Each structure stands twice: as C-alpha cells, then as structure tokens.
Amino acid sequence: MVSSGRRWLREQQHARWRLHCLKLQPLSPVPSDLEISRAQTPKAVDVLAKEIGLLADEIEVYGRSKAKVRLSLLERLKDQADGKYVLVAGITPTPLGEGKSTVTVGLVQALTAHLNINSFACLRQPSQGPTFGVKGGAAGGGYAQVIPMEEFNLHLTGDIHAITAANNLLAAAIDTRILHENTQTDKALYNRLVPLVNGVREFSSIQLARLKKLGINKTDPSTLTEEEISKFARLNIEPSTITWQRVLDTNDRFLRKMTIGQAHTEKGYSRQAQFDIAVASEIMAVLALTDSLTDMKERLGRMVVASDKNGQPVTAEDLGVTGALTVLMKDAIKPNLMQTLEGTPVFVHAGPFANIAHGNSSVLADKIALKLVGEEGFVVTEAGFGADIGMEKFFNIKCRASGLVPNVVVLVATVRALKMHGGGPSVTAGVPLKKEYTEENIQLVADGCCNLQKQIQIAQLFGVPVVVALNVFKTDSRAEIDLVCELAKRAGAFDAVPCYHWSVGGKGSVDLARAVREAAGQGSRFRFLYDLQLPIVEKIRTIAQAVYGAKDIELSPEAQSKIDRYTQQGFGNLPICMAKTHLSLSHQPDKKGVPRDFILPISDVRASIGAGFIYPLVGTMSTMPGLPTRPCFYDIDLDTETEQVKGLF
Amino acid sequence: MVSSGRRWLREQQHARWRLHCLKLQPLSPVPSDLEISRAQTPKAVDVLAKEIGLLADEIEVYGRSKAKVRLSLLERLKDQADGKYVLVAGITPTPLGEGKSTVTVGLVQALTAHLNINSFACLRQPSQGPTFGVKGGAAGGGYAQVIPMEEFNLHLTGDIHAITAANNLLAAAIDTRILHENTQTDKALYNRLVPLVNGVREFSSIQLARLKKLGINKTDPSTLTEEEISKFARLNIEPSTITWQRVLDTNDRFLRKMTIGQAHTEKGYSRQAQFDIAVASEIMAVLALTDSLTDMKERLGRMVVASDKNGQPVTAEDLGVTGALTVLMKDAIKPNLMQTLEGTPVFVHAGPFANIAHGNSSVLADKIALKLVGEEGFVVTEAGFGADIGMEKFFNIKCRASGLVPNVVVLVATVRALKMHGGGPSVTAGVPLKKEYTEENIQLVADGCCNLQKQIQIAQLFGVPVVVALNVFKTDSRAEIDLVCELAKRAGAFDAVPCYHWSVGGKGSVDLARAVREAAGQGSRFRFLYDLQLPIVEKIRTIAQAVYGAKDIELSPEAQSKIDRYTQQGFGNLPICMAKTHLSLSHQPDKKGVPRDFILPISDVRASIGAGFIYPLVGTMSTMPGLPTRPCFYDIDLDTETEQVKGLF
User: Fold this and answer.
1) Is the Cβ pair B323, A206 closer than 8 Å?
2) CA-CA distance, A124 to B149, in Å (whole number)?
3) Element (DSSP H or E) covering residue B183
4) Which residues does UniProt call coiled coil (chains A, B) (predicted)?
5) What pLDDT, on the 0 to 100 scale, is given for residue B507?
6) Are B346 and B337 in contact (CB under 8 A)?
7) A471 — phi, psi (to 5°)?
C-alpha cells in the first residue's frame, strides 16, 4: 500500500503539467516589445503555480503576475529526480547583444507550449540603472518574452533593493566603527559595546562568536582582562584596505570616486570611496550562489571587507552585522516566478555582474526548477556574456557551488556577430548598421565562424554536448543560415538549427527544442577545467590558455602581491572569476574572431570570499555606468488614466 | 426600483463589517513586542480585504499579510459618505516618545474589536535606517501593534525603496546633465538630445512640453534657430544652487557631506554634496500629499532641484525625468493594507520627516479608509512629533491638500512627560529613569500639565474637539492619573481618559473609544490657522506666535533673501512647514513646559515645490542619522531553521 502510494505520488510529480498555454497571434511587422507584452494577458500567477505542482503554501504572491517560491519545496521534493539541465551561452557578441535571453525564452516556449514537455526558464533580474539609461531589455524580446515586461524590468519583488539595503548597512557599519574606535578609549568602547542593561552586562550571541574566534573562552563580560577587552573591542580596520563599497541601483557616474566623511561631525576622518551599481555588490553574487538560508547566512558573515592593521581579514561577522544582513535578505532568497508570453513558467532570480562576478542566475532557482519539471523535463538557464566568460564561470563556479551537472549547452550565434568576427566593419550601439550586415555576404560569415568553432571547442573542454542556435534576423539569407549550421556541425556541435522565436514565438524554436531534447539523451561527461587545489596563478593560467587561447599570462606586481596575500590568508583554493571584456576572446575588445599569441595581463586581483571566488582584473572594469546625454527616460512615461507604462524599450 | 437598489447598495456600504476579530490573551508581565506579534497568527490579508468590502480586483496581495489597495476604489465609492476623521497627536514628548502609535492602534482595536464599530488606523511607514541603528519600533507596541511587526518594520512592499530609486535617478540626471552641457557644444548637445533615428528627428512629448514652456511654438526639430537650440538644449544649472540630494534608507553619517565627481571620467567637475535618509526625500512628501496618479505626476514634475544661472528654478520636468519618476512610483502610490493584533484593518503608507517635511501618513490612505469604514465608521490617523508641529502641519498642510475635515483630535499624554514639563530631571534614551519618574509625584504632574493645556489650546485654535488619552504606565499612581484627567478637562478637553491598550489590547482603550465617538458627535468647526495669500513672513509669524507662543520671529539675512526669491518665483502662496525641534514648544530642546517671551530664530528657508510647502529652518536639522557604537543590529538575527526574525525590538 505504502509503496504503491509512493509510486503514485512519484508519478504525479513526474507527470506532464496540464498547463493552459496562452495562444500567440504574431503580427508582421513585429510590434515593439512593450506592445507585444501588453497585448497578452498573463495568467494569474497562483494559477500558474498550481499548474506546475506548487502547493498553495509554497508561494507568496506579489500582485497578480509575480510570486516568490519558498525553499521548503526543496525538502518536499528531495527524492524527486532532477530534470535535464540546459545552459544557454553565446559566441563573442557585438555590443548589441546576440539574443541569449530571447533564445532562452523561445526555447522553453517551444518545449512546453509546442512539444508538451515540462520546462522552466531561469533568468537574471536586470539592474534598473541601465533600464533608465541606455535602451536594452532583459526580458527577452519580440514574441519570446517574459511578461509583464515592465514588472520584470522595474522593481520586481524588491530583491535588488534588499541587496542595496544590506550592502549599505554593512558599509555604514565599517566607517562608523572606525570613527568610534578612533575617538574612544578601549574602556569606553567596551562599555558601549557590552552595555549595562537593568544592572546586567551580557554578550550578544554574535559577540560570543567573536570572542571564540579570538580564542577568548569567557562568557562573563566582567572577567575580560584589559588586553582581552582591547582585542575584543577594536577591529583596527586599516581604512586604505577597505574593499567594501556602497551601492545604488542607479547609473550615477558622479559617485565613481568621491571623498566621504567631510561633515564636522565626522571629525576629520574623511576618506576616498566609491559607489558601485547594486548588482555589482558581493551580496548579489552570494544570493546567486547560495543553496539555503543557512548557507547564505554563513556566506554573508564570511564576506571580507578590509584588512586590519596587521593584515588580517576583517569580515561582516566581525562587525556584528551577519544577522541583520540575513534578515534583510530573507525574502530575496526566494526565487521569483513569472511566465513567458505563452504562459510557461520562468524564474527570475539574482543578476550578478558578469565581469567582477560570475554573471549567472541563481543556483536556488535552477534547483527548484529542476525538481518542478520532473525527470523528463528541462530547465534552461542563461549565462551572461560570451561562452568564454559566462559559460566558463557557469561550469567552474556555479556548478561547483550547486553540485548540478549540465546536460546540454545551447550556443547562440547570429549572422551579424559572425560577420563582425569575419572582418566586417565595427558595430556600435546607436549607429546604423553598415550594409555588410544588411546584405548577404557569405565570405564574411565563413571567415567569422572561427569564433563559433572556438566557443564550441570551449564547451567541449567541459564534456558537454553543444547545440548551436542561430538566432535569425530578417536580413539573413538562406545561404548564410545554411553555411553557419554546416560549419557548426563540422566543428563538433551535436546539432545547429536556425531559430525564429523573435518573430513567431515558441513555434519558431521547435527545431531547436527537438535538437536539445536529443542532445540531452546523449548523456554528458561533465568535468571541471581545473582542480581547486592548484595555486591561484595556475588556475588563472589554465583559463587564459585553454579557454581564451592566450600564450601566457602576465601579472602586475600588485596582482602578484594580492595573490600572495590571499594564499597566505587561506583563500588560495577558491575558484577563479575572470573580470575580462566580453567583446573579444582576448583582453582587447577590438580583437575579433579568434585572437592568438597574446599575453593576458592581470592588473589586479580581488576576492569575494563570501561569494566564494577570487577575481583577477584583466584591464579596468567600470562598476558604475553613466547616463548618456539623452537617457531613455526621455521616452518613458505613465498614462495616468490607464496606468500603463509607455516607452520602456 | 433603481432608487431602492441604490439604497440597498448604500446600506451595504454603510453596513458594519462582519469582521472576524483575533482573540487576545494578554500575559503579565507583558512580553517583548516581537514575542507578542509572533504569538498571534494574522488573518490572510485577502480575507481581511473581503471583510472590509474590498473587491478582489481592488487588491494586490504581497505575501500572506500585506496587500496594496488600488486607487480605483475611490471612483467606485465616490458617492459614499466619509466616516469620522480622527487625528492622534501628542503633547511635547520626552526623547523616549509617548506612545502615539500604540494609542492609535489601541483605539482602533477598541472601536472595532470591542465596540463593533468600523474603524481603520492609518500609520506611517518607518525608515529602515533607525530600525538597524537605535531601537524604536513604529508598529505600536505591547498588545496594540500592527502585525507581523517585522514585515511592518522591514521592506514592507518596497515603497521607500521606490522613493530611493526615483530620488537618485533625478540626482544622477542633474549632475550628468551639467557635465554634458559643460563638455559639448550647443549643436552636439542638440543632436544627441534630438537624435536622428532611421533618418528622422523627432521631439519626445516631454521635449515638446519644454519647448512650450520656453515659448517656442515649433514641433519640427529642423526649424529651430541657433538661439532656440541653445535655449532648448541648455538648462544652465548653477551647481552651487542644487538643493536636490541623493538618499539612502541607511543611517550612514559618513555621507552627510562629501565631494563627488572625483573620477577622471568626470573631468574635474567635482562638487560638494550629501546624502539624506530616504524618508527625507521630497518624493516622500509628494507621496504623502498626493491624491491621484495624475496629481502625483504633476507634483513630481514641479519639484525644483536648483536654479539656473539666471536665478530661475530648474525642475524635474526640465530634466525630462517626470515620466520615469512616475513609473518608478506607480505602485508606491497604492496604500498598504495590514492588520492589528486583533485583526482590524490598518493602512501603512508614506512616512515623511516631521521636521523638514510634514510628518503625516498619506492623504490617499486616509481617503480610501474614510470610504471603506462608511459614514458611521472611524479613521484614526497619526501626526508625528508634538501637536505644535505634527498637528499644526496636519491641519494647515495635509487637510489643505486633501480637503478633508477632521472631527476629533486625540491628544496623547503620559505622566512621565508631564513630570518632565513640571521640572523633573532630564530624560535621556539609554539612561535609566530617575526616581521622580518611577514614584508618585503629584506636584511635578500638576506643574507639568501646563504643556498639556497649551497643546489643547492649540487644537482649539483649529475648532476641533480634543479628547486627551493618558497612556498609562505601570508606575503611574491613581492620584496622578485622576489629576491629569481633571486638569485636561478643566483646560477645555471634551474628555480625558486613561488608556491601558499596551498591557491588555483594545479592551484597555474602550473608554477612549467611547469618548472619541461622543466627541465626533459634537461636530467640529474646523478652520485653518492662516490664509495662504498672506506673505511668507506673516504665515511664519502666525505659527510662531499662535502655536509656539513666541513673542516674535527673527529672520537671518539668508532666510530673508530666500523668502524674497521664493516670493518672486511665484511660490509665496504655499503653506509653511516649520522645521523645528519636537522636544520643546520653542526652538530650544531643553526649554520644557510652556516657554514664553522667546524670539524664534529662522536661520534659513527652503522649498519643496512639488510637495507644496515652504520650510523655514529653526536651527539646524540633521537629515542623516548615524549608527551608535553598538547598533541594535548586534541583537538582530534570523533563525535559519524556522525563518523567524530575532531581536527586532
């Protein structure tokens, strides 16, 4: 009885969803993304949740079209086999982007709405900064979108705001602590840190943890020696070593470098500082890599914010703020459920920078989605930038953190980008495309396929089969399309298929969906590229040579000394997160195709200990975008009668 | 038929709610606020919404215990008579606060859960900064609370985050515009502002509005003269006049004064700037005073951020950002529905500063609540600080904006504060109370009642009946309580009653509820204190003399010149929002009781044109709090197993 009941339950879980898909009636020419999004009425999100097997108490609805999903589901479905795990990556892109998000969305629309296979797309949440600065949606586009796209692109459920709040509380705690230590005696500091409340002095639990770390095995505040009091009360942060920056989710270039603490109340303790865009916060990377509330709390506590005057790392935990950060992030950790234009499920969760961080959506969204789709289902997740960066980090950082094994890589290419790699004129945002890109040019395509071949080879380093998805534009000719598919297969791709999701929705990606399903049946022989036990320098060199095709690397003295310091501090066995341009396989954005014989210069090395990686800087990385002279907010408006957003993309 | 149908409908709307109240079982001694909050399971917010007559499509649920209410309800119920409108204000408080929020919550618990009268509490949303800095809840306390209190005190539904995002987008737009104007020719600026897209140049609607404002009646970008191009393209902002500051919802004292723009990419255009706490943003004041989406958009566009080089005001509209700000604020404008410990409805919406802004919750929450309770119901709303500030602004600013007429003022007093006004020793946060406050002392109480009498008289200036609510502490003696009530009535209060909501919930405020109901039956003869057409100086003088009891005012030269400028710019007929300490009726915090014969110094005058008031500064006002040496985040933690917040108050 029990075992047959269990089997029944398992079958229920494996069952194909009875999903009510939303019908599309694609128009030609294709209207704007916002018009397409608005023309479709999404299902109520609680209806969608029920369709995909979520229990009523496993979701927290936010308005009509968004819901957070509770992590308790992972416990309920822990015996359920995972679905197939598909990564969407891309070739080296033009500055216009090659449509990885639309391919991701088109693929799940095809799988679920057209092939009746359970599937989930897992996407990154975009930063609001660029949304109001330079046009560029992240919800997909055309007839392959997440809807409502304005909800996706604006506050969503407040996760980035929570990150901002947590990040800045920690920043304020650092400077204020330095000020208080500089202006108070040991005794005064101690009396304030461990105050007399109703005649009693008690350590808080976070303070007891600090005592333990310091090797002081005492619990009665009155028994500490003067030396112990000083050790306990002083973090002795060296201001020049502070790496923790404040953040805002706004493109505010005037905050790239500034001097803070200039009010007389700060008594002269001013210092140079900067704001980064919120998604560059290490807390975003933590959110993306954590797999539970307990793990997130530990990671937040481990984040290193500076060194003390003896060169020892100072952490969030040392500042006593771990609990508060966790409280601020307690809802952000739950993935956000939305839907595609065809009514299939999507998770939107986390959106770390793809250079100073790993640029992948969250481990938790992928894990939950893999349970929900069931063994025969598919989870399609996306990596930022080209495969040399996003995919490499997906494998070496994200899969290492999650323990998940990918089944297929979908590599997105466009004729436009291939022509650029073949020697076409430069492609610049805001400038009309040259005729090479709007007319057939077989030679440029043929020459540019070298980049596609190289990216296929990179995926193969990890033992995972590759399906090339050619994201077709209306100016692409049949001969160009056929050539790309032919060359891709010759380079070792399992398959290569043209996709038309942008103009017709999931129906246009059915061939891709079929190819992915077949590739997943092949089985992958996934392996990491490097062993974590290797020295930091060796890990960097491995990536540079095997992935980028560099001859070697060259470390600046600064980079070398940071590597020495991190190794000495015990952080040498973390994976590597390269901060490199995405516009070339090399460090030089204008070197297209497959650059050779270059030496990759490492100018500096930094560490995100809570997120769990070391990030070498290849050149300078801007972590705070600016607004252009005519920001796109000039076009954005709200119709106050209909409450409809206008001009967003 | 039709008319009887209408009557039936009206009766339905007037009907007493069939509200399932939550039972309380008060413990003694009273546990911590968080423990009390946690011991009660709130109703699902959609159940509560249905109970109070909201239609399913009028709410947007955010999780289990919070919902946003749509403004469309105001249209549906526009023929419904408003309920009674009750303001809770206080005497001049000690730094510990005298419990206005608990009285507000206790009063609605009494009205609805114990007298079966429809009622709504309208509260301000607290800033997260102090929540993690210095202890002090805003959800009420003891057995008169809004639950879940951690939801109330943390992100809520993201309104303050939306304000932060909107505020900082505008700030970034200002500095970036100055940089772009400084580094580009008229022609280059124009070509970027009105770019050629697919061979066509077009003005956006926001740019057409700007042309109209400049008196340029053209719509074809190619027809502007060189002079017109320059006028259109250059705002010519004078950096030293910028009054728009960046904000964060964090207590970050190092941002009180700083130099921004020091990166080489900003080409030397650095300037001094500051961050304020987010709730000090003018956008918060706009949110609190607006009565519709259309009105909010107009107010946001009107906000003056600086002067140009000719001394003319530069607005958000001039920067082209009105639409984007409105889009960012489109959900924040909807009031947030929560509930009290006894399951009665509460709106939490807006929380502007009570000194540089008007310190009252939102007009929209009050308006919607007045419709929902029906003609026989009560809406209890709260004003920050003492009655001399919060109540005066409620009447002269908020009621003027809303057109609503208050029926009753509840004036909250405590024996503790009265003793302080009677000459008791000073009361300081974090320092144990002196024995004068914990033992009976009739003389101090009798002497201190002068402050209560004065605050009663202030309310009477506006023609509204006053009920004094004595918020009883366990150390108050019967004789002290009786004396306060006796003296209050003698000073003209309609009634004066002791309240015990903190220790027993609504049951402890039933006498107050009865008194309020009776007072509301008296009818109020509400009048404003001053005519808007009076010169700014006269309006300030009227408040200083009639409300604070000052002999006269004294303007600094700076204040005088600002008044002249605002008058000249056409802002002379706005109401006045005094930025004065709440710790004394005068400008000196240590002058307790009823100070006399003082001259009120006005050091500076500023303007919030979008919110719609002029704010004179009486002394310096800190708009960015700091963290103490031991911030309360030391006690805050999350139990990662149960997901429960610990140590929050």
Assistant:
1) no
2) 31
3) helix B159-183
4) none
5) 97
6) yes
7) -80, 100
Find the helix packing angle between B282-289 and B293-302, rounded to 10°: 150
- Out of A155, A180, A646, the one facing B162 most closely (by C-beta) is A155
Q: What dihedral do alpha carbons B294, B297, B302, B304 form, nearest 10°?
A: 160
**Quick check: is B124 catalytic?**
yes
Helices (H), A45-117: 45-51, 72-76, 100-108
Other CB atoms within 10 A of residue B374 CB: 23
- Which residues of chain A have a CB within 8 Å of the CB of B627? 172-173, 176
Beta-carbon pairs below 8 A across chains A and B: 277
Q: Name residues 376-415 of chain A within 8 A of B (Cβ).
A: none
Cα radius of gyration rounded to whole Å, chain A: 26
For chain B, the C-alpha Rg in angstroms (whole number) is 26
Q: Which of the following is catalytic: A124, A367, A454, A507?
A: A124
> How far is the C-alpha of B308 from the C-alpha of B293, rounded, in Å?
29
Determine the Cα–Cα distance for residues A127 and A352; give it in Å rounded to an integer.
Answer: 9
Q: Which 3 state secondary structure label does DSSP give A302?
A: helix
- Output the pLDDT for position B13: 55
Q: How far is CA A474 from CA A96, A206, A414, A416, B606, in A?
A: 16, 60, 11, 11, 57
Of B145, B150, B122, give the one whose Cα is nearest residue B24: B145
Residue A354 distance to chain B (closest CA, Å): 22
Q: Which two tokens stand for residue B401?
A: 């904006």
Say whether A633 and B297 touch across the interface (CB within 8 A).
no
A385 is catalytic: yes
Q: Is B112 on the interface with A (CB under 8 A)?
A: no
Q: Are A275 and A256 in contact (CB under 8 A)?
A: yes
Convert the pLDDT of each residue in B244-253 to its tens digit: 999 999 999 9
Nearest-CA distance A262 → chain B (Å): 5
Residue B202 has pLDDT above 90, yes or no: yes
Tokens of A69: 């999903």
Asked if B246 has any chain A CB less than 8 Å from its own CB, the reply is: yes
Q: Would you state the pLDDT for residue B111?
A: 98
| B615 neighbors B563 (Cβ within 8 angstroms) | no
Give the span between the Cα atoms of B649 and B644, in whole angstroms: 14
Q: How far apart are CA B342 and CA B513, in angstroms?
A: 15
State the sign of the Cα–Cα–Cα–Cα dihedral B382, B385, B388, B394: negative
The residue ranges of DSSP E strands in B269-308, in sequence order, are 271-273, 275-277, 304-307
Alpha carbon A550 to its chain centroid, in Å, reads 26
Known active-site residue B354: yes
Distance of alpha carbon A579 from alpha carbon A616, whole angstroms: 6
Q: Do B265 and A253 touch (CB under 8 A)?
A: yes
**Known catalytic residue: A84?**
no
Question: Residues B40-76: pLDDT tens digits?
Answer: 999 999 999 999 999 999 999 999 999 999 999 999 9
Name the region of A233 (left: φ>0; alpha: ψ -120 to 50; beta: rest).
alpha
Who's near A61: CB < 8 A, 6+ residues apart? Answer: A45, A46, A67, B61, B62, B63
Task: Tell me whether residue B398 is exposed, middle or buried, using C-beta atoms within 10 angstroms of its C-beta: 0 to 12, 13 to 18, 19 or more.
Answer: buried
Q: Give yes or no: A250 in active site.
A: no
d(CA A123, CA A285) in angstroms, rounded, equals: 15
Side-chain half-sphere of A267: how many Cα atoms within 13 Å? 9
| Residue B245 distance to chain A (closest CA, Å) | 13
Can you say whether residue A619 is alpha, beta or left, with left for phi > 0 and alpha for psi between -120 and 50 degrees? left
Tell me which residues of chain B, numbers 249 to 288, contact chain A at a CB-CB cutoff of 8 Å.
Answer: 249-263, 265-266, 270, 272-274
